[in-house]
Amino acid sequence: MPKKIIVTGAAGFLGSHLVRELVKEKNNFVIGVDNLSTGLLSNLEEAFNNNNFSFIHADVSQKEIIGHREFKGVEEIYHLASPASPKFYQAFPLETIAVNTLGTWNMLELAKRNRAKVLYTSTSEVYGDPELNPQTEQYRGNVNTWGPRACYDESKRLGEVLCYEYYRLYQIPVKVARIFNTYSAGLRNDDGRVISNFVVQAIQSKDITVYGDGSQTRSFCYVDDTIKALLLMMEKEEANGQIINIGNPQEYKIIDLAYLIKKLAVSDSRIIFKELPENDPKIRRPAIDKAKRILGWYPVIDLEKGLRETIRVYKEKMGISKNGELRVEN
């Protein structure tokens, strides 16, 4: 019998990449679940051509999802469902809260019924605007519960609490991945996150918009590295009951990122500055000692290599020729 695996948020950026890897294994049967509020079915085009994949259009925050007939005998649950870009979670704040709390509760209850393993994707946003750099898993963060980012940050934190209680009360083998900025050309070009914004602006020769003075820092992990870490977390029993940072510890100023993308895209865009959004963190960098120790994982794709591939694919997707001109196809 094939191993039955659920991926929630399957049509999203990370979810679709994860599905693509899981269906490569002949002994896996992957059930993708997504309400398509921000995910795109086109992200799953490759998976739909595979007999090892099934898709359910549903909202995991609805209680009836637990009893879905296709979920009987599930062995692994990757719970990735949630808007992850500020653009989207601020547009759907109540839905974001629901999927990270009620949706997480439902997936944990489903795991309890089937004695399944669960991997919950939390976020580096739980650290808020950190006063410790790099951020370790033991750091409790510096968060604002009353602001435009709180719907995401705080609901992810409560999702972690639910995971802890199901691990403590019912011994559900649950693992929590705190994911730091992940990127690739798989990000929607209207996603609103910094790399997709900068790349799209650069290849279209539009102004590259930097918020604040650009001195704030982030770390960026290419999607292939992040997906490898998630697969290892699900596999390793040592990760049960653990929170593990997943990200690239190399730190970059946003202004330096803007100039690097402008250079790699061979762009004549201007770099302009706008007011920094409320509660935007000044620093963000993971300590990954725990990931190295428990998973034997560390990222191997550096930023310049990842950006070159991202820019190349974005240009293809957006119909931009090598000389930077818009291609017109008959």
Describe this structure in words.
With 330 residues, this protein is α/β, with parallel strands linked by helices. It has a domain of 203 residues: NAD(P)-binding Rossmann-like Domain (Rossmann fold, 3-Layer(aba) Sandwich), CATH 3.40.50.720. It has ten helices and 13 strands. The strands form four sheets. The chain has a seven-stranded parallel sheet with strand order 3-2-1-4-5-6-11, with helices on both faces. A two-stranded parallel ribbon has the order 7-10. The C terminus is likely disordered.
Give the spatial strand order of the biggest sheet: 3-2-1-4-5-6-11
Based on the structure given, which CATH architecture of the domain at 3-180 and 222-246 is correct? Answer: 3-Layer(aba) Sandwich
| Structural class determined from secondary elements | alpha/beta
Shape: globular
Strand content: 15-25%
Round the Cα radius of gyration to an integer and report it.
19 Å
Q: Write down the CATH topology of the domain at 3-180 and 222-246.
A: Rossmann fold
What are the salient characteristics of this protein?
330 residues, alpha/beta, Rossmann fold, seven-stranded parallel sheet, two-stranded parallel ribbon, 10 helices, 13 strands, 36% helix, globular, disordered C terminus
